Amino acid sequence: MENREDRAVELFTSGYNCAQSVFAAYADLFGMDFETALKLSCPMGGGMGRMREVCGAVSSMALLSGLKDGNTDPQNEEAKKAAYEQVRTMAAAFLEEHGTILCRELLGIDKMEESAAPSVRTPEYYASRPCVKIIRSAARIIAAYL
């Protein structure tokens, strides 16, 4: 089986955002095609639309856990609770490694970006950000759950 941590990093370094990179590295396990995976996860990048809120890689862990064990019955409170607990467990593992799940704190910035336009991807961009490490971490955490 392909190393999905490496695949997630490869996707990121080829230009996909953090959320797309983690989500698309695993979506095929649930019968989802690559293009649909990219479309679904795209808006979560940059801490949701580059607002620098919850890290897109963390959001993708939650989405993937939903594909695996998400609840479809609005009356099943135990299933909802189990789904929420799994997200909290994964977020806690991420928090243990990185100290936060917030994009802006991971990047060391104070607030939402002024522009929704993504940063130009250059070698300097990749060298200046912790995103590769973060994506690898999220891909490893979700793999342990899946």
Explain this structure to me?
By secondary structure, the chain is an all-alpha fold. It contains nine helices and no strands. Helix 1 runs antiparallel to helix 9 and helix 2 runs parallel beside helix 9. The longest helix is centred in the middle third of the chain and has 22 residues. It is globular. It starts with a helix and ends with a helix. 33% of the residues are buried. The model has no long low-confidence stretch (mean pLDDT 94).
Structural class: mainly alpha
Percent of residues in β-strands: under 5%
Order of helices and strands: HHHHHHHHH
- Classify the helix fraction into a percent range: 55-70%
Rg: 15 Å
Gap from first CA to last CA = 14 Å
- Main β-sheet description: none
Low confidence ranges: none
Shape by Cα distribution: globular
Mean pLDDT: 94
Number of strands: 0
If helices are DSSP runs of H or I spanning 4 or more residues, what is the number of helices? Answer: 9
